[in-house]
Amino acid sequence: MIFLRHGQSEFNLHFTATRRDPGIVDPKLTPLGHEQAARAAEALARRDIRRIIVSPYTRALETATPVARALGLPLTVTPTVRERYAFTCDVGSPISRLRETWPEVGFHSIEEIWWPAIEEPAEQVEARARLFRAEMAALDDWAHTLVVSHWGFILAFTGKSVMNGDMIEANPTEAHPEQVVWKHH
């Protein structure tokens, strides 16, 4: 399966420059982030993707939308692949607001407030990644899955840091990383 980290968000732009939380709740993509999403859609159009799983954060949905359009696939939204809750950007938007912006997307069985109330310990994110690994490994066609996610979740699943708009392939039938080093890039 393929993990795609969302394109550059307003938070990423400011945090990279200042190393300070700019206080942006559920940030949108920057123009560069939209370009990264378009490039990903172009690259993935040549792949045999049959399922797109995406985090409910706006930056992930904005990244996944052009990919879904290019592939003619619906988005499957799940908070399981959300970012580790550690910054203001990890406060999400309520499901009712997301439905207004993406009426064509199903937000089935997702609570109105789906993100945690307090900072999420690393072990909790790694446990989520293990659960997702087991769910994906149980599918016969996991190799045809694209997951549009975030730095922390991808790190927890693969043990590797991925930059905005970049992709990494992962095999959910392989062992979970022995050690995840939580140093923010």
Short summary:
The chain is an alpha/beta fold.
Which value, in Å, is the CA radius of gyration?
15 Å
Helix share, percent: 25-40%
What is the terminal separation in angstroms? 24 Å
**What is the name of the CATH class?**
Alpha Beta
CATH superfamily: Phosphoglycerate mutase-like
CATH topology: Rossmann fold
Shape: globular
Low-confidence parts lasting 5 or more residues at pLDDT below 50?
Answer: none
In which order are the strands of the major sheet placed? 3-2-4-1-5
Class from secondary-structure proportions? alpha/beta
Can you tell me the number of structural domains?
1
Oligomer: single chain
CATH architecture call: 3-Layer(aba) Sandwich
Q: Compute the number of strand runs.
A: 5
- Beta fraction of the residues? 5-15%
What does this structure look like?
This protein is of the alpha/beta class and 185 residues long. It has one domain (2-169): 3-Layer(aba) Sandwich (Rossmann fold), CATH 3.40.50. Helix content is 37%, strand content 10%. A five-stranded mixed sheet has the order 3-2-4-1-5. β2 (51-54), α3 and β3 form a beta-alpha-beta unit. α2 (31-44) runs parallel beside α3 (58-71) and α5 (122-137) packs across α6 (151-158).
